[in-house]
Hints:
Blueprint: E1 3-6, H1 17-25, E2 30-32, H2 43-56, E3 62-67, H3 69-78, H4 81-84, E4 87-93, H5 109-112, H6 119-126, E5 134-141, E6 155-162, H7 171-188
Parallel strand pairs: 1-2, 1-3, 3-4, 4-5, 5-6
Helix pairs in contact: 2-3
Amino acid sequence: MPIVLIPGVYENWQFLQPIAERLYEKGYAVHVLEKLKYNTGSIPDMADIVRAYLDEHNLSDVIIIAHSKGGLIAKYAMSKQSGIEHIRHVIAINSPFSGSKYAYFFLLPSIRTFTPHNKIITLLSQNEQLNRKITSIYSEFDPHIPGGSQLPGAVNIIVPTVGHFRPLSDPQVLRHITRIINEKEKEKL
């Protein structure tokens, strides 16, 4: 089962390196998308890169592991026909599915896009049908996303960590990720 990593805004794939290393050691094919660079493009544009990568490498039954904005990109990619065909499940870590009220304080479009009333955030929030294919793992307190990362209809897992980035190397989060992947493999059989 291929694993595709999608980092958050102003992050490259190395932010997810603890997860990548753990899964690689367990024998999983881990894919990183260099074309995302530091993930400053719009959510639809970044989702197009993800879908093109899946098509180009003929990947199916993919599990996406995403951090922050990466979770929004993964959900947007799934909302398109070519994405839903390839993506089996998304594990999103500290993703602002309902936006963040702090985004109003930024002028940069790459951050401002996370306002709760942004049209993409609103569109993704309305598409609750896809939430059943998402597991949202999030800190009990995330200073970047004060409203939390709970996603209606998804599997929601709160971890006893504080911070936006700390969960990426938290042993408990790594165990949850491994367990979820194992469950998805068993479902496939």
